[in-house]
Amino acid sequence: MRIVGIFLLLVMCLTTQAQTDQDLSTLVDGAAFPNPVFVSPDPPKPIKGWEMTSVSDEKVLKGEYPGEIIKFRFKGTAVGILVYSDNHSGIIEYSLDGQPWFELDVYSNKSDAQLKGFTLDKDLKNRKHTLQIRIMERNNPESLGNGISLQSFYTNCSLKSRMEF
């Protein structure tokens, strides 16, 4: 597998302004993320297999090509993703800190894209971590596609820590 992009943009861990009227914190596990920090995956340059586009009038990082990997570096004890899920969504694999890959099916039987939160891990040591995400070739048998529309990463880092993505 080829790693197609590493985002190296430093971001202070301040909660970003939600781009919709919906309160994003209601989509995450309140126990693991009492004050979630949302980071938009807006790369400084194009990444092969991934592109910035819009879903429901929000910027998202859309991936449709199996095997292409993106990385997100952060500090904290928990991490998750917000994705727009619909009947074209596929299955992703993710790995934290080089550990084994886990599958996550983000398919929904709805034709309209709905924003959903997925906690990927909430028992990490409070240190720097690297999250890798790739799209699988195999998809849900009911899905019409295998893409992912990533709205944001979220974590529970403190105000003094920094994120790289």
Task: Give an overview of the whole structure.
The protein is mainly beta and 165 residues long. The chain has no helices and 13 strands. Strands 3, 4, 5, 7, 10 and 12 form a six-stranded antiparallel sheet that branches. Strands 1-6-11-8-9 form a five-stranded mixed sheet, with no helix packed on it. A hairpin with a 2-residue loop joins β4 and β5. The radius of gyration is 15 Å and the shape is globular. The N terminus and C terminus are likely disordered.
Which structural class fits the helix and strand makeup? mainly beta
Shape: globular
* SSE topology string: EEEEEEEEEEEEE
Integer average pLDDT? 80
Distance between the termini: 19 Å
Approximate strand percentage:
over 45%
What Rg do the Cα atoms give? 15 Å
- Kindly state the percentage of residues in helix: under 10%
Count of DSSP strands: 13
User: What are the low-pLDDT stretches, counting only 5+ consecutive residues below 50?
Assistant: 1-22, 159-165
**Helix segment count?**
0
The largest β sheet comes out as:
6 strands, antiparallel
Layout of strands and helices, then pairs:
Blueprint: E1 3-6, E2 10-12, E3 37-39, E4 50-55, E5 58-63, E6 69-76, E7 79-85, E8 91-96, E9 102-105, E10 114-121, E11 127-135, E12 148-155, E13 162-164
Parallel strand pairs: 1-6
Antiparallel strand pairs: 2-13, 3-12, 4-5, 5-12, 6-11, 7-10, 7-12, 8-9, 8-11
